[in-house]
Design brief:
By secondary structure, this protein is mainly alpha-helical. It is built from three helices and no strands.
């Protein structure tokens, strides 16, 4: 009974961690782009379409799997998009730096 309770708590903790992590991975880049746009560091207008068509729907696809019983599926999906997401964030950062340098 004690072992079963521990396994259940571990499972719940893992699921909650995955929910928070996937939400962060999908939303953090969008928030950064919005901040860069708000501070007029970059014009993020074309980037909004990318986020609304590609990145944020990924989060919508992943969440039901997380709330259900398919953490393995989530790990596979997250693994495929991780590299693309990192590249996109890096590209946005470099573009913002280039624009900032040109404006100086």
């Amino acid at each position: 009974s004690k072992n079963r309770s521990h396994r259940r708590k571990t499972r719940i903790s893992t699921k909650l961690t995955m929910i928070v992590l996937t939400d962060f991975i999908c939303w953090f880049p969008f928030i950064v782009v919005c901040l860069l746009h708000s501070f007029e560091i970059m014009d993020a207008t074309p980037t909004y379409a990318l986020f609304s068509i590609v990145v944020l729907p990924i989060n919508s696809i992943i969440n039901p799997a997380l709330y259900g019983h398919a953490p393995t599926l989530v790990l596979l999906v997250a693994g495929r998009f991780k590299d693309r997401l990192i590249k996109m964030i890096t590209d946005i950062w470099h573009r913002a730096k280039e624009i900032e340098t040109k404006n100086l």
